[in-house]
Amino acid sequence: xxxxxxxxxxxxxxxxxxxxxxxxxxxxxxxxxxxxxxxxxxxxxxxxxxxxxxxxxxxxxxxxxxxxxxxxxxxxxxxxxxxxxxxxxxxxxxxxxxxxxxxxxxxxxxxxxxxxxxxxxxxxxxxxxxxxxxxxxxxxxxxxxxxxxxxxxxxxxxxxxxxxxxxxxxxxxxxxxxxxxxxxxxxxxxxxxxxxxxxxxxxxxxxxxxxxxxxxxxxxxxxxxxxxxxxxxxxxxxxxxxxxxxxxxxxxxxxxxxxxxxxxxxxxxxxxxxxxxxxxxxxxxxxxxxxxxxxxxxxxxxx
Length: 303
Description:
Layout: H1 15-21, E1 29-32, H2 39-48, E2 53-58, H3 61-74, E3 80-84, H4 90-97, E4 102-108, H5 113-117, H6 143-147, H7 152-163, H8 168-181, H9 187-197, H10 212-223, H11 225-235, E5 240-250, H12 253-265, E6 269-271, H13 281-286, E7 294-300
Parallel strand pairs: 1-2, 1-4, 2-3, 4-5
Antiparallel strand pairs: 5-7, 6-7
Helix pairs in contact: 7-8, 7-10, 8-9, 11-12
């Protein structure tokens, strides 16, 4: 992609817990389906070297460019390959890598700090850039186009279903009223609407921004995030070697519920985490994004 990229600022959450959960050792083949800033993949590649392989996948082309540059600058001979794809299409990436089965999958779902920092893409609430919210800017429609086209009941339904926002109808009505005067275009436009609709402003550092759930809902809808997760959960087991593990980090209840149910209902999986692993107070202090992270791990025990 023709865009100047800054070095990653993304801090991988539950770093030590993920590396332990994947049972890493030399010779293993591990797929990181959400490459992000490459922090997890770098550690995985070092752990499986020299005879293993770390495969990084991301649907954000800027993330891939950034990580490829990061690995090149290290000057290390690391067993690492990266592919531009949605993680639910990991099988196509495996075919390109010449791999039939793997020893582990990692998904770190949701938004990366690098995407949030890119003010041209609309992930930041106070950005004057377009309210795009697509991970892959070449696919689908940006969020602002949908908000200016959808009917009020469709907007309310998306915000409530994917954001669990109880003020969804109020926010949807305000969006429709606002676009009648002037089309909604920037992230700041939407954030201001959400904040005006919140019944108890102002907020503080102990409460989430009133725009949070609406932005989350639109991002999930624009990228069909739950659909991708459902596809992955239906097919990953057949590509996992016996004794191989899957580790999935989710950040909200909709994702976590899908993962928990899929692990529990698969007869050939042993659920390692009866309760999800969460960040320590020390990690939350270092990286507030880890506050809502939940890690679930399962191991394949039969074909």
